[in-house]
Amino acid sequence: MVALAMPRSSVLRSPGDGLLCGEHFQVAYATNDIGRACALFRDRFGIAEFLRLEGQMPAGGTIRVELAWVGPVMYELLSASGPGSAVYMDRLPQGPGFALGHHHFGYLLSSAEQWDAMLAKAAAENCAIPYQNDNPGFLRSCFVDAAPLGHYLEYILPDPAGLAFLQSVPRT
Q1: What confidence tens digit (pLDDT) does each residue in 73-110 have?
Q2: Domain residues for 116?
Q3: Which residues pair with 80 in a beta bridge?
Q4: Does 133 map to a domain?
Q5: Rounded-to-integer distance, Cα 107 and Cα 41, Å
Q6: Domains contained in the chain, number
Q7: What is the CATH number of the domain that holds 41?
């Protein structure tokens, strides 16, 4: 058997050049039943192990996140409820039954200059930033609303501890 690989460019551009430019590393899905979503990704799509994070959000609601690497792509499953959860759950179909939907693409930034360029580009494109967080010593993150695409773009600028955390996520 011959191993084939698709050569990919290692030249990265800044999100200041365009909001889809940069190091795309993550695909995230929101769900109203995270246990069922994990089982789906495990049983049907082969992701054997996730790292679970859960806790209270600043506005008082709760969030649960499940993370896993598959090759160079991190998959994130998320579910939130209560105050502050709208940015996570507002695009899911409402009503009874299981819901799962694409939430965001994640982009890893490598410098404060890239962070500033991304914010400037989002402002120039009139894109809302409905969520922004700065956890000093760990990472900065934000969601940019890419409304014409139907999902968010998340940008992450990790400090060394945040990068170590991302590297600790299980690999399938």
Answers
A1: 999 999 999 999 999 999 998 889 999 999 999 999 99
A2: 23-168
A3: 63
A4: yes
A5: 22
A6: 1
A7: 3.10.180.10
